Amino acid sequence: MRTFIPSPPIEWSSFSIGPLTIHAYALWIMLGIVVAVWLTTRRWVERGGDPEAVYDIAFWAIPFGIVGGRIYHVISTPAPYWGPNGHPWDALKIWNGGLGIWGAIALGALGAYIGARRAGVSFTAFADSAAPGVLIAQAIGRMGNYFNQELFGGPTTLPWGLEIDPAFRPDGYAQFATFHPTFLYELLWNLAGAALIIYLDRRLKLYGGRVFWLYVIVYVSGRIWIEHLRIDEAVTVLGLRINEWVSVVVLLGAIGAFVGLGWRQRKAPERPDRSLLAAPASHPEDDAAPGVDGTSDVADTQGDGPTGA
Q1: Does residue 262 carry a pLDDT above 50?
Q2: Confidence of residue 99 (pLDDT cuts 50, 70, 90)
Q3: How confident is the model at residue 271 (pLDDT cuts 50, 70, 90)?
């Protein structure tokens, strides 16, 4: 007997409470944000930071990230909005799905930078604290694609093939019933990647933005092959989807940044360790993190590192 992963009933993609319609896609994104803020706060406090700063930064980073993700999606997949049968107003219907991760990261980072500067804390220290939580949030958010029956891969007869209702099968694929569950591939990859980042962070004592760039390397490495499996409509260049090209460029840049920061820190270390906790003022000989105001390394300083530029 053949096995497969069933898709949720279409009715589960949204439900109404009076005049308000609640979309599963939005709920999963919100859950991911909650988990990311919780984990970021925990890692931030462990490094000597004030938890209130996380909420102040999130106030800027979250809306910037959502808007950036939507803008990137609309630009990279323009046909549903600006094509011959497109509907421009649908570009605003974020609840129907469609957030591009590169736009979310770019504008989300800008929002975080603004929030960090306003809170008077180190942007690179915050980025390092937030990286694993962001990856877990991305994993949770992929469940929204599952409920919307979208962004799946090509046809497959593997036991974990995802059953897609006929109404959601792309043109030319109506005769196939099960497809690669790319939402699941990315979900598992991201969770495993977050665990790896946390482990390496503790084992190697990374700091100065290297945790963030490690996050980018881990995520993009998986996104490249997962993106190649997808069959949803997208702009292609030289036979590859635009997101594949972006992923390759970002991966090379992230590797360069990670290696470059490591080389610079070995040549001229700015900190004896990656701890954000400063030594008590009465013991200046202890290993306090340099470049701080006698409190903790989360305090904003000049020379915050490349990711703070």
Answers
A1: yes
A2: confident
A3: low
| pTM of the shown model | 0.82
Query: Does 250 map to a domain?
Result: yes
Return the residue matching tokens 């490690």: 214
| Total tally of structural domains belonging to the chain | 1
Q: Is residue 13 part of a domain?
A: no
Q: Which long-range contacts does 188-195 make (Cβ < 8 Å, 24+ apart)?
A: 188/139, 189/219, 189/222, 189/226, 190/135, 190/136, 190/138, 190/139, 190/142, 190/219, 190/222, 191/135, 191/136, 191/139, 193/135, 193/218, 193/219, 193/222, 194/132, 194/133, 194/135, 194/136, 194/139
Smallest Cα–Cα separation from 69: which of 128, 117, 138, 123? Answer: 138
Is 279 buried (19+), middle (13-18) or exposed (0-12) by CB count in 10 A?
middle
Closest CA to 170 of 226, 114, 232: 232
In a domain, 14, yes or no: no
Measured CA to CA, the distance from residue 214 to residue 4 in angstroms comes to: 34
Distance CA 95, CA 116 (A): 29
Q: Is 139 within a domain?
A: yes
Which residue matches tokens 């096995």? 3
Question: Do the beta carbons of residue 282 and residue 294 sit within 8 Å?
Answer: no
d(CA 143, CA 181): 11
pLDDT bracket for residue 309 (50, 70, 90): very low
Tokens of 62: 């979250």
Token representation of residue 162: 């995802």
> CA angle, corner 213, sides to 208 and 216, nearest 5?
155
* Residue span of the structural domain in which 65 resides: 20-308
